[in-house]
Each structure stands twice: as C-alpha cells, then as structure tokens.
Amino acid sequence: MIISLIQTSQNRRKELERFVKSLNGQTNIDLSEIQLIFIDQGDNREVFNDLDAKVSFVYHKTERCSLSHARNLGLKYATGKYVAFSDDDCWYDCDTFHHVIQRLQKGFDGVFGIVMNENGLHCNVFPSEEQRLTYTHHCGAMSASMFLKFDANLKFDENIGVGSPYNLGSGEETDYLLSYMEHHHDFNFFFTPEIIVRHPVGCINDVESYIKKQYSYARGAGYVLRKHKSLPLSYKLLQFIRPMCGMVLYSLTNKIKAKKSFFLIKGRIEGFFYRIR
C-alpha cells in the first residue's frame, strides 16, 4: 500500500518544516509506504532535504497558480493506491498514518478524520463517533484529512478553490468528493475521530477581510450546489435557508455574524447562478 500525498505552497517555509518533521516522526508504519508530491510555487526545495529518505519524494516547480491546478499537477505523479491532499500549514500527530493505514486495510475506499489545531479546537463540525459517509452527509470532510482510493480519471475543477479566476474561492474538495461518489456508487467511506490532522484555526483580526473571504467561499459553494444535479432539492434549499435564518437571528445580537450570514446567502446565490465565461 502506498499513500500519495499531494502538497503545494508558495512561501510558508516554517510551516513546511513543521510538516516534514511530523511526517518523519510517524510511528508504527513503514515510511516507504508514503509518497510525497510537492508542487512548488515558490522557493522551498531545501526544506525537503530533511525528509526521511524512505519517503518517496517527487518535486515539481511551477509558476504561481490556483490550488486546484497545483493539485491536478500533483495527481499526474501519483503512484499510490490512495491519495491525500496535505495543506502546507498542516501537520500530523505521530500516530496519524498508523490509524489511516489500519482503517484502509479493512477495505474502505476512503477514510476521513478530524482537522484541529494544537489546542484541540476543530476547524469544522465533526461527529464525535465513527460512522460512514453518505452522498449528503460528509462528516465535516476536509481535504487535509481525507484519504481516498486513487482514481486517475478524477481531477479538481480549476474554476473553483483558492486562486479561482472567478472568485469561486472554495468547494474544490467537496466537488472532488461528490464526483468520486457519483463515479463510484458503491463507495465505502468511513469517518473516525481517531485520525487527527493538525491545522491552525484562524482568528478574526480584520472583519472586512474575513467577510470577503467567507463571501468568496460561499460563491464556490453555490457553484458546487448547481453543478451536482443529483443533490436532493431539500439539501440544496437548506444551504440557503441556514444563513438566511442566521441573518435574522443575529440581526439584533451580533452584527458581525449577521453580516457574515448576509454575505453567505449572497455568495451562494451568486455562485449557484454563475456561468463560467
């Protein structure tokens, strides 16, 4: 079994050093079962001089590009039975891959875990117990903590995600996951809180920048909702109703959350009806 990790970065050398150290420190596994594919949008080659020699390493230098495009470049080099997408600022507990490989050896098509910072603060809403994923229930799946059976025919939609030319700033991982499910109707995906990937949880230091980011993310989410026509109407409506209710609920109690809810509904509507030029 080989797990191909695909990672890209521009200028986060300290974070990449932390990532390499955590990968080297994995216990109870054979590091030769890991392939790391690094798509360098900056000047980070030296960081990987300290990577354990047992890890199969592929280095590709490219110009600055969107996250989705960089990941598609990385997928061309994948040789593993499974593929995963490591953020440049994520890192692993020493037993992360031990738990991943244990679950994959049970025959699952993919396993998913929790993403949280060093203090245990979660980056998303995750279940507290093990369970299977469904087409409409993804257990808070984030790309940093999903390990999927590799399908060479699947690619990331380069219209969406960080660096999108259309300001559709998220949704690429959800789109990839939904596309996998649509191509493999018998998928068998499993979530366990025992798989932990560490990642910083951002603080709101600049409200305007935070709202702008959420708006861009919402546009990407709306685009994905329209793209996947098999999603139930009830599921799609809920994605619009929730921020609408939030806008009303917070209008008298929390102006920042009310503003965020407004731009979430605005962004999702715009993304849903957006047509790529």
Biggest sheet descriptor: 9 strands, mixed
Q: Structural class, from secondary structure content?
A: alpha/beta
In CATH, what is the homologous superfamily of the largest domain?
Answer: Spore Coat Polysaccharide Biosynthesis Protein SpsA, Chain A
Q: Count the DSSP helices.
A: 7
What does this structure look like?
The chain has 277 residues and is α/β, with parallel strands linked by helices. The chain folds into two domains: 3-198, Spore Coat Polysaccharide Biosynthesis Protein SpsA, Chain A, CATH 3.90.550; 207-273, no CATH class. The protein is 36% helix and 18% strand. It contains seven helices and nine strands. It has helices at 13-24, 67-75, 96-104, 172-183, 207-227, 233-250, 255-273, and strands at residues 3-9, 34-40, 56-61, 82-86, 91-92, 110-116, 131-132, 146-149, 189-198. Strands 1, 2, 3, 4, 5, 6, 7, 8 and 9 form a nine-stranded mixed sheet that branches. The protein starts with a strand and ends with a helix.
